[in-house]
Design brief:
Blueprint: H1 12-29, H2 31-39, H3 44-72, H4 75-79, H5 86-93, H6 97-109, E1 113-117, E2 120-123, H7 125-131, H8 134-149, H9 153-158, H10 166-170, H11 188-208, E3 216-220, H12 226-234, E4 239-244, H13 246-254, E5 265-268, E6 282-286, H14 294-307, E7 313-318, H15 327-341, H16 349-358, E8 363-367, E9 376-381
Helix pairs in contact: 2-3, 3-8, 5-6, 8-11, 11-12
The structure holds S-adenosylmethionine.
S-adenosylmethionine (SAM) binds next to α11 and α12.
Amino acid sequence: MQSDPPLSPGSIVTGWKRRWIARRNRIIGSARFQRWAAGNPLTRPIARRKAGGLFDLVAGFTYSQTLAAAAESGLIALLAEGPMGIAEVRARCGLSERGAALLLRASHAIGLAQEVAPGEWMLGQQGAALRGNAGVLAMVRHHRLLYADLADPLALLRGDRAEATQLSDFWTYAGEPGAAARDHFNTHAYSELMASSQAMVAEQVLAAYRFDRHSAMLDVGGGYGGFARAVASAHPSVKLGIFDLPGVLQRHSSDPAIPSADAPTLHPGNFFRDPIPVGYDCISLVRILHDHDDGPAMALLTAIRESLEPGAVLVIAEPMAGTRGAQKMGDAYFGLYLWVMRSGRPRRAEEIGALLDAAGFRRWRRIGTDLPVITSLIVATA
Ligand SMILES: C[S@@+](CC[C@H](N)C(=O)[O-])C[C@H]1O[C@@H](n2cnc3c(N)ncnc32)[C@H](O)[C@@H]1O
């Protein structure tokens, strides 16, 4: 049996905490205690909640696959049209009769669908929230790749990111340092995915930070420009630029879905090789830093700091690890996602702060957002 390491005088609290947690865990793990807690009317609600939470951990992948089936079959869009019978669901979603009934009942169990009268189905509350969120639905469809990659999680963790994955093939700039230097990769699939979920990120960032205190903002890794356009419509006085790989930016001129009126200045380039454009008193990195390992992330922050005049700021927006209310998203979801992608990691705000300090920024602060599950925010001053 492993014994506790000796305690230093400064770790009395830690020692006490460790003993308390060990005792608590022994009690919770005892079958006798579990039976007692479930049978006692006073503790029963807590026991049920805890057992339900544990079952969610055990079976969560079946919920995700129910969601994937509901999104991909078109069930969520269909139920938004109004009450539907099973026959119509079966025909329009291309399912067998029993399959349609099963999907409806499973969707009901996780809040996606609701049986309003016998045989009549509408969206449930979760389904209604999802229906209006094209970005999340696109992520649900995209998760097919992650789900396949995660089939053997231990192999992934033992492999130390050595093998290519479906996800690293999708994010063509990820997986090897300097991969973005190659000019032949397909950037459209990931750029579209990012564009579809950008609105909800921009909403959080714009509600938390006033960009109209700046005269010009450069969105580094700005993709198809959703964030820059959101800043432009909230603050028309701010001049905007976007820096991204040439393959991404060339779509701006050819894609009619990307409006060109008041278009931001485009700076095609590779932020690991090319200088960061100057003349901006604000630079944003939205969902960029966590894509990169510490070495490249540090190089990028240093290049950005060198491009900024003293007093100009860098705004970093991404989900962060160790964030109260968003631990599952930061540490579990992005922890695994970026591991499988073979590049980057979710960082705690303090870890980003340490990189900013090392890159020569004078100070940084964290700014709260309404939904840290979507993004957190750090503003650093050069
Ligand atoms: C995860 S996406 C985020 C896009 C956008 N900021 C958003 O939140 O929707 C990362 C972006 O960084 C760009 N990128 C990756 N490596 C790059 C590099 N070396 N130089 C320039 N842009 C790069 C990608 O093309 C992509 O548009």
